[in-house]
Amino acid sequence: MSIPPELPSERNEEALAEEFQSNTHHPPAPADELFDITTTVDPSYIISLIRKLLPANVKCGEISLGYDAHDASTEGPKTEAFRITSSPTENGDKRSPIHVSETMKTAENFVEQSVDGKLYFQNKHEDVAVREEDWEESGCILWDLAASKTHAELMVENFALEVLLATLMVSKSARITEISLGIIGNLACHDVSRKKITSTNGLIGTVLEQLFLDDAPCLCEACRLITLVLQSEECAFLVEALQSEHILCRVLWIVENTLNLQLLEKSITLLLAVAESKQDVATILLPPLIKLGLPRILVDLLSVEISKLIEERLPERYSFQDLILQTVEALSVMDDYSQEICSNKGLFQLLTQLIKLPDKADFANSCIAASVLTANILTDAADLALEISQGST
Is 58 helix (H, G, I), strand (E, B) or coil? Predict the structure, then answer.
């Protein structure tokens, strides 16, 4: 027999008196120490998870940050905020300042210490060493929480991005790198946290560096994150770093050579985001991509997918066809690139081959895109159809 929940009216007076007495000894926190964001998850729990992501070589919350007392003195009273600048890099450069709020210090129970000119944040109760499996558990929880706009804002307000940046810079674990990129990718789904991503000094460049890893899950998350930023109002912050020929070559190499289906989808989606991006972004990124052979790569990929489609109907590959055709279609309607796309005989033959396939219901979207592309080609290169038809007779 189940016991019904206790109703307030059923509680005895003694218990109520004890509760009242207890409450008088635990007054609410001062207004300036309360969190501004309402969340269903205890903010201190989220902060504790962020703290657990600090790199293992960081001492109890130390983010390897240098401290300049002269800079700090210009930032106003320490009760409001204080300035921390990162230690100089090998070439002497310094990263942008990080402002640590009183809320963060109070919530994390940190102790400020100055040792040999450096500022450390040492937690009173936290152990120094964090094993990789513990990091993974905390990271995966934050990965899920970052999908929520409210939790995402709380995370970036409490320096999750700075911690993740530090992790990416020192991580030798592919799994830790994947989770870090995944968390940032979820944060990039929300306006406020995405703006913080693009304004965090060094973060975009560090994310782009991850494109040169050989781990497919890491590359998937990196491509996803880059795509999300390209599709947003903050895309201009990414374009300057992304336009490097070195990076664009790597993106095309991944698209052309990966055997991982998820990575293939994410990398083609990235190219589609470039093709469909704002005019000023496309103007910067597309010319070098075209020069590096993007049209040829797209046609080669389409040829592979149609060959597989003829041999065996694999539903998991239909989305690749759609993405490739959407990217080619986006290029075909641009004045600067339509001629190069529409004059490609191999592309026209592949489109014709796709349209002629029987039982198209399963890949109807691809056939529709192929028909639109064919119409574009016939409009811009009317002689091509006649030339191909004469050559086939």
Answer: coil
